[in-house]
Amino acid sequence: MIQINSNFLQLKPSYLFTEIVNRTSAYAQAHPDADILKLGVGDVRGPLVPVVIDAMHKAVDDMATVERFHGYGLEEGPLWLRRRVAEFDYAPLGIQLEDNEIFISDGAGSDLGNLTDILDVHNRVAISDPVYPAYFDTNVMAGREIDLLPCTPENDFCPALPERVPDLIYLCSPNNPTGTAMTRKQLQRWVDYARDNHALIIFDCAYEAFIQDDDVPHSIYEIPGAKECAIEVRSFSKTAGFTGVRCGYTVVPNELYGYSNTGERVALRPLWLRRVCTKYNGTCYIAERAGEAVLTDLGRKQCLERINEYHHNARIIRSGLEAIGMQVYGGVNSPYIWMRTPDNMSSWQYFDHLLNTVQVVCTPGVGFGKHGEGFVRFSAFGLTSVAEQAIARLTQS
Ligand code: PLP
Q1: Burial of residue 225, with CB atoms counted within 10 A of its CB: 0-12 exposed, 13-18 middle, 19 or more buried
Q2: pTM for the predicted model, two decimal places
Q3: What is the distance in A from the centroid of ligand 1 to the CA of 238?
Q4: Phi, then psi, of 192 in degrees rounded to 5
Q5: To test the ligand 1 pocket, which listed residue (14, 235, 250) has its Cβ within 8 A of the most ligand atoms?
Q6: DSSP 8-state symbol, 90
Q7: Angstrom distance (rounded) from CA 158 to CA 331
Q8: Domains and CATH numbers, the chain
């Protein structure tokens, strides 16, 4: 008799985006003439930038020849792309990486979910709250104990060091959903804490390309000691609009160690390589060539032009909300603006209020964790005209 992984029964239903769609569609059906403005979506806008489109066309042409056809490659990704990541992304930050420390992936989501395969189920996990739900759910699936680290305006959205020492810590900066980012000093505190306690940090910097403040590190490895305690997960999704292309990379430094159940010190990188080679057959060649094109001067310039549009939208939303007296956070080093709901409304009450009064859709903060209750998230990924109209309606209401 086949037995299921009963941990799955502990998962809370993931209804956030379905519920947003349901409530929005119900409103649209009841008000067919309504012009609904969507500021909830966390997905990027097309098209891809020109260098990426060219690179993908060329990669398809490669696949159309006998000589340049690419079949199975290295599971951890081709050397030409791993070297490009090291030289173009990390070296300018003063970070030297070995080729074998970089793993090309099909995006951050998969690796964030899969990394814990190499970690024991008895590790105690600490996860900031509110946050991108994947960290929580993957650890529920594995059956680990989880402590939530509240991130609120009171602690500047930087979690306090936990009372119960965790073995595994998830940090996300710039953060989804709060749009805030950790400073060097804040991150140093966590790195020191992790090293002191032989804990591992999984650092998700999927929104790194949005960083504008000098004091916010682009990589955790800018922090002294981080190679001894942190895995970094990166993605082209938000940097270059690859949410439908699927390519990212994860860094597992050679200096990282964990402990076996007999107390032996074991390097993590070879374990992760073994896991990748067993359960993954490599990223799509066309997506890899597209990623390579992002990591060029022209690629970076073109991607930054798009990101600047998102920053522009974020400024419109942020300053518009501030002008009507709302308490807003984030939106500077991130495409997300986090807002406290007025009059102590719950996240969903405010969602309904906005939809019914000004036909604007936001994302209820409680969908990202219990400490998100009483907040909503606005996204700057839409068109500038949509951001402008939404703010105009809110101002006039
Ligand atoms: N990490 C964070 C914080 C995200 O917000 C997202 C997607 O929204 C991801 C990871 C997943 O990114 P990817 O498209 O690379 O899987």
Answers
A1: middle
A2: 0.97
A3: 8
A4: -60, -40
A5: 235
A6: I
A7: 16
A8: 11-47+298-396 (3.90.1150.10), 50-296 (3.40.640.10)
Token pair for 387:
């951001």
Tokens standing for residue 263: 């107390």
Secondary structure (3-state) at 44: coil
Ligand 1: residues with CB < 6 A are 42, 107-109, 132, 172, 176, 204, 206, 235, 237, 243, 248
Query: Quick one: angle between helices 297-323 and 285-294, nearest 10?
Result: 80
Nearest to 167 by CA among 121, 211, 199: 199
pLDDT in tens, 41-77: 889 999 999 999 999 999 999 999 999 999 999 999 9
Tokens 């969908």 identify what position?
A: 367
Q: How far is the CA of 115 from the centre of ligand 1 (A)?
A: 15
Q: What is the pLDDT of residues 83-128, one digit of tens each?
A: 999 999 999 999 999 999 999 999 999 999 999 999 999 999 999 9
C-alpha of residue 108 to centroid of ligand 1, in Å: 6
Measured from the Cβ of residue 116, the count of other Cβ atoms closer than 10 Å reads: 20
